[in-house]
Amino acid sequence: MPHSHGPTTTRLPDGGHAAATWSIPADFGGMTSALLRRSRAFVEQGGAPVRVLTFDPALDLDAARARLEERGQLVPGVTLHNLWADVRAMSDEEVGARAGAAPRPDLPRGAPGERARLERSGETTRHLHFRPDGSVAAVDESTPTGREVRFYTGDGRPGRRWSTVWALYRHWVGTVLTERPTYVVVDSKALTKFFANLEIKGIYTLHLVHGAHLTAAATDAHGPLAGTRAPMIEHVGDYDAVVFLTEGQRRDVHDRVGARDNTYVVPNSTDLPDGALPAHADRYRGVMLASLSRRKRVGHAIAGLRRARAGSGLPLTLDVYGEGPERERLEPRAAKVPGVTLHGYVTGAADRLADASFLLLTSRAEGLPLVFAEAMARGCVPIAFDVRYGPADIITDGVDGFLVPDADVDALAAAIVRFVSLDDDVVRRMREAAVATAQRYSDVAVVGRWAEVFEDVARRRPVSPRTAGRPAGPPRYRRSTLSRAARKVAGMLRRAGRRPHRTAHLHPEEGP
Q1: SS3 letters across 248-307
Q2: What is the reported pTM?
Q3: In whole angstroms, what is the distance from residue 337 CA to residue 341 CA?
Q4: What is the number of alpha carbons within 13 Å of residue 388 lying toward its C-beta?
Q5: HSE of 256, CA atoms in CB hemisphere, 13 A
Q6: Before 332, cis peptide (omega within 30)?
Q7: Mean pLDDT by 10 residues, the chain (512 residues)
Q8: Could you give the C-alpha distances from 477 to 90, 143, 171, 474, in angstroms and in order?
C-alpha cells in the first residue's frame, strides 16, 4: 500500500518495511542506535512506517518502548514488537487448545514480573514463558528425542505446538508482516541463520553487516573470521541482499566467496548540524569519542599526544569522552600527560566536536565509525589509524583528514603535529572538505541509497501481482528442498576453504 507518513524527500518502494534484531537492551550500543536512527529516517525521509521485530524472551517490551519514547528514539511510525510478548498476550482461543484437553499439572507459576525461566533436568531443557499473572504461556522443551514449543491456556491446557522454534519464528514473522512485498533489514548477527532460511513468499530479506567479519589478526581477505560473522559468509547467497557499510568490506567478501550480484554498500547516517562552520579557535585541541575498551586503544591516543607534545613543544590537549572497563588502567597514564582529560560518559558528547580542532581514532577494528561524519560535519579534522574497513572509506588522506599506519604511535604523533602546523588557508580548506564529505552520511542521502537497494532487489525477484499488497497467509516457501540441499553443500565447500574459527555461542532460542 502507498506510504502516507508526512512529507518526504526520498520515496521508499511501496510495501512493508521492517528491522529485525534480537533485543533492545537498556544500555544498547552502536548497532541498535543505527537501527533506530535508520527506522526513524525511513519514516521521516522515506514516508515508510517501520516495524522493529525482536525475539528476546526476557525483553520487557513496555519498558523498552517507554525508554525509547522518552529519549525520542521511537517516533510515530516506528513500532516495536516482540515475539514472546505477543505469545503472552494471546487469548485462550488463539492458543488453540483441543476440546476436552486437561490442564498440565506440572507447570510452575512465574514470580511477579518474571517473563522467562530456563530449567535443566538431566538431558531435558525447558524455556518457560510466563504471562503477567504468572501462568505459563508457552514451553520450549528440548529432549534427546527432539524439541517442541507448545502454547498453553491460562489454566494450563495445551494448545498449538511447533516442532522447532524457528517454525514458530516464521509463523510470527508472517503474521506481523502482512504487506507484500515487505523488506526486512536484519541488523542482529544472532539472527543471521534464521532469516537466511526464512523463505516466506513476498518477504525480502536484507542482512546489514555492522562490523568487521575478519579478526584484527587478518592480513588479507582470506584471514581468520570473527566467530560471530562466520554465518554471514556462509549465507551470503541466501539473502536477497547483503549490505555492507563500506566498499572495502564488500570487496573483501567478494574476494573470499566470489563475486555476487546481491551485495550492496550503504553507510549508516548521522546527525549533521546546520549553520556556519565553527571557528575552531583552539588549533591545538584534540578530542576522542570512544568507549574505554581494549578495542578502542585509547592508550595509543594518549601516547601519541604525549609524543607530539614532547617533540613539538606545542600546548596540545586531548579530551576523551566515553566510559568503559579500561578506565582504571588508563587513568594513571592520562594523569602523566598534561592536557589529557578523561571526561567519562557525557550526554550529547558529539556537540563537543565543534569545539575541537582534530579528532583521534585509534581503534583495533571498525565497521564504519560515524564519529568521523559527526566530527567532519563540524569541521573537526579526523586523524586515524588505517585499520581495515572504515577510515580509508571516509577519509581522503591529506584532503579532509589523515590516515596513519595501524598502531604506529610515532606516525600518529607526527600527523598531529603536521596538521596543527599547517597554514591557516590549508586548514580552512581541509575543514571545508571534511564538511563536504560528511554530507554523504545525511539521512536524506542514506535513505536514498536504501531506496535504490530495495528497488534493485524487487527488480531481480519481483513479487507476483497476485500476491502484491495482499495480507499474508501461512508462510509459503520460495525455494525447493533440492535448492536448499545445494546451498548446504556450497556452504560446506566455502567453510572447507577457510581457516578454523571459534564457533559463536548463540542463545538457545536462536537455533532450529
Answers
A1: HHHHHHHHHHCCCCCEEECCCCCCCCCCCCCCCCCCCEEEEECCCCHHHCHHHHHHHHHH
A2: 0.83
A3: 9
A4: 18
A5: 30
A6: no
A7: 50 95 89 94 96 97 95 94 98 94 95 96 96 97 94 97 95 97 97 96 96 87 90 96 95 96 95 80 93 93 98 97 94 96 89 93 80 92 91 93 96 98 96 94 95 96 61 41 45 42 32 38
A8: 26, 28, 12, 10
